[in-house]
Amino acid sequence: MRQYDPDLTPPWKRQAPAPEVPADPDLVVEEVTTGFCGAVIRCEKTAEGATVTLEDRFGKHRVFPMEPRGFLLEGRVVTLVRPRAAAPTAPRRTASGSIALPQARARVARAGRIYVEGRHDAELVERVWGDDLRIEGVVVEYLEGIDDLPAIVREFSPGPDARLGVLVDHLVPGTKESRIAAEVTGEHVLVVGHPYIDVWEAVKPSSVGIPAWPTVPRGQDWKTGVCRALGWPGNTGAAWQRILSSVRSYRDLEPALLGRVEELIDHVTVGGPAGP
């Protein structure tokens, strides 16, 4: 019996199958229908089928179905497929760049502490160095203001096994902050700072999707001025969440902050291991 091809399209009009390409993270493709170009962030299995999330150079995310011939790779039509699970070829790293210890448990907090100047600073440190700090048993607390630092140091009573590290915003010579830092600095107290008016500036503009942090005239609230200059809503709390969500690892931070935080961690952990 003769077999009939159910596809009535003439053979000379049929499209050749597109090559299948694994949708590996960071692969840059263009969606054929919308022209949206971005790097692969993740693949997911949904009730409607497999989807891929792309991120463009401005940080915008779009989700697309992984349909046949649905994407362009270097100008060539391809079909994205879910990447195969592969055995890890290198140690996993934490957001700070340290080698992750899969079986390690958080240690009992040591006596040493790190203080940072504000809640946003504390959240940013947790975002990047949180895994490292838990392994080392280091607690991060925040100051309400630099003026409170001398009293905190006196109450803390630093010593060889209870070292204190402090991160200060806009620590430049000749300022009130520098005078207070000099007053409390000692063998067991390390005060370091970054040059930025606010820790927002320590996040690279490219990570946030802006060309640069705007200059805010003296006399204006800096955060409010930044939101106004960038055309963001005036809610500075929402603005900070937008900035914080753009930080995935140490690569999103300026070196002037990275080095200072690493100094503080080294300082407070030099007095011996934390408890088990």
From TrEMBL:
- Domain DUF3097, by residue range, is 20-83, 113-269
Which InterPro entries does this one have?
A: DUF3097_C, DUF3097_N
Q: Where is this region: Disordered?
A: 1-25
Specify the superkingdom: Bacteria
Can you name this protein?
DUF3097 domain-containing protein
Species annotation: Streptomyces lonegramiae
